[in-house]
Amino acid sequence: GSGGSGTSRWVDGSEVDSDERPPWSRWDDEEFKSRHGSGSIRRRLVKKPKRVDSLDVEAMQIAGSYGHHNKELSLWHTLALAFQTLGVVYGDMGTSPLYVFSDVFSKVPITSEVDILGALSVVLYTIALIPLVKYVFIVLKANDNGEGGTFALYSLICRYAHVNLLPNRQSADECISSFKLKLPTPELERAFRIKDVLEKKSSLKTLLLLLVLTGTSLIIGDGILTPAMSVMSAVSGLEGEISGFGTDAVVIVSIIILIALFSIQSFGTSKVGFTFAPALALWFFCLASVGIYNLFAHGFTVLRALNPFYIYLFFSKNGKLAWAALGGCVLCITGAEAMFADLGHFSVRSIQIAFTSVVFPCLLLAYMGQASYLLKYPTSANRIFYDCVPDGFFWPVFVIATLAAMIASQAMISATFSCVKQSMALGCFPRMKIVHTSKRLMGQIYIPVINWFLMTMCVVVVATFQSTTSIANAYGIAEVGVMLVSTTLVTLVMLLIWQTNIFLALSFPVIFGTIELVYMSAVLSKITEGGWLPLAFASFFLLVMYTWNYGSVLKYRSEVRDKISMGLMLELGSTLGTVRVPGIGLVYNELVQGVPSILGQFLLTLPAIHSTLIFVCIKYVPVPVVPQEERFLFRRLCPRDYHMFRCVARYGYKDVRKEDHHSFEQLLLDSLVKFLKLEARDIALESDLNRPDMDSASVRSQDSGPSADTSEDLRTPLMQDQRLTEPEEELPSSVIPAEEDLDPSVEYELCAIKEAVDSGFTYLLGDADVRARKNSWFVKKLMINYFYAFLRRNCRRGAAVLRVPHMNIIEVGMTYMV
């Protein structure tokens, strides 16, 4: 088990030398004091040299080599990725020519060419400003080690300022190689001021969290509306083509396609990039060629729309109607957010190349072609996309359009899945079953509950609204909402992390925020005509996510409050006041420091407890990925003869917990053995200071030889003597073949652990119930006792989430009063 893999893994050995006891341990139990006198211990504590943490040194070596993506991709590889982005990222924006103009001109009747040129001008400048300037050149740079999306921005901010509401940050997390923060100097002071303000005011932390949750819940709302909108727009092309094909038929066909689309989700999106990219490449080619055909057939007058003066004319002519029509224009940039949210699968460069060289020109041609057709035939506005297709090409275009619409929906559905997974990892979403559909690509996941929920909602939306115009009203709000959230967060990143010049940093929200707010005001005016829908979805998800986060934070705080004091542990002695039987007990809990109160419950309810106890805490840190070799952090709890350890297993929010319990146990064990050797080596190195005591110590260690019988009291007379042995090059263990001069106490401990392993692992879980205190506010009681309790009952419970085998579980009930 621990051959090759054991050697490459290292564990953080800092702050764990058994002489570096926390002050409250009274240096040790009475027996030890009487033997050594407390003075010498204090002296040793003082003499202790400051040691470079092994983790730091090795993290420095690997910090450069380990990257979430190696960004220096070869040119061909980047082009291949850019081709794939067409299928995953740009589907949504690519399908918008299906419905933009028909929606705009349902609000503004065409009376002169100013209407058409003005609307075209608005669309062209919107595409140039928001996706091109804002997303492609600015927002994409605010990624978190190659991850994008609102949660990635939030985790980036969490790394710089302690704004996470869950207080489980450890200084050791900052040594994870993907955690490294790059801070330039000039604007540092301002960044620190902002950081201080954010960290001191809990109201601001909550506000930031609510902002992020709003963004995420709007993205989930998008996941419902995009499929409904795109599929229905594509199918509605049949209305004018087949006689007797009315609205009901469109609705039924759309629903059949949607059900098919959601049913194939469980097969995974592993081939999604390469199967979808050719279809969308064909679609973009088709958009461009139809556009060029129309420009040549109906004249180049529309090029005048490149003059932004037409925007002014459009507004002065149509007034309030023009403002309402903005709700249609904003649909040309739906899916701009997906560029950022799906960044994890691609590289920044590939997304930039694809947008500037393919997507942007093709969309411009498509809109210009449609406008030039409208100048000739102003009456065909409501079916403009299919009308301007040259005769005889209807069916091929229809098939490609339907495919493109399904692919666009696919992109939004996968963005929804990854959003939900990230929020689960950061403790903001009830735990659900996540299926990993690809062996190679981590990001590709499928969440059954969310999938069926989206499908039901999609079908309901199509069946009740029955027209793309009302869906479009809903759609605009969700899109613009997400954009406003990311504008705010990127501004914060600019000020706090990039430390951009203040004028540049503030011009970003001023320019783009203004455009988005104007659009927001236009789409909000449509609240009664379908705009309430995404707001209803968003507030539902916001409630779920905030309740879950609030409950989890309160539960964590009460765990910290109730933890067992060290004094009590030392009073109990190394038997813990009960019988210790061979075996390893893995106590799962959320604390990163101290002894959790759940141990008390186990000691009260079980007649005996395992000879080795490891408190396992599975913790998500605000980085996308934690390298396997940096996963486990070990600490020793209590004196050596207690055989109690704390292990923090750290995962990033994109990490997949794929390991089954066997490999997890093996990893844990390798890390523990490694940790014990590191600890012994550090103590040995220190012992050079205390050379004179050498002989007596070695004699004493011969007398007491390691006893093999672990059922007797696990107290070794050698408690402190092992620090008087020679420093060794590589400390062996009983799990790794033994060499000669092994410190007896380490050898004894490793023997005890080996014996414990032979007796097997047991998982000790707490089945926690969280209740609000009697004197709490009514709202708090409602949230905790009803909503949060309901979510806890219906999400995945401990055993399933922690991936532990059902055979070896012992659970005790705990009630936390919060």
UniProtKB/TrEMBL annotation:
Origin: domain of life: Eukaryota
GO-annotated molecular function: lyase activity; potassium ion transmembrane transporter activity
Region of interest (Disordered), ranges: 1-37, 693-738
InterPro entries assigned to the protein according to its UniProt record, in alphabetical order: K+_transporter, K_trans_C, K_trans_N
Transmembrane among keywords: yes
Keywords: Ion transport, Lyase, Membrane, Potassium, Potassium transport, Transmembrane, Transmembrane helix, Transport
Domain K+ potassium transporter C-terminal: residue ranges: 582-816
Function as written in the Swiss-Prot or TrEMBL entry: Potassium transporter.
Protein name: Potassium transporter
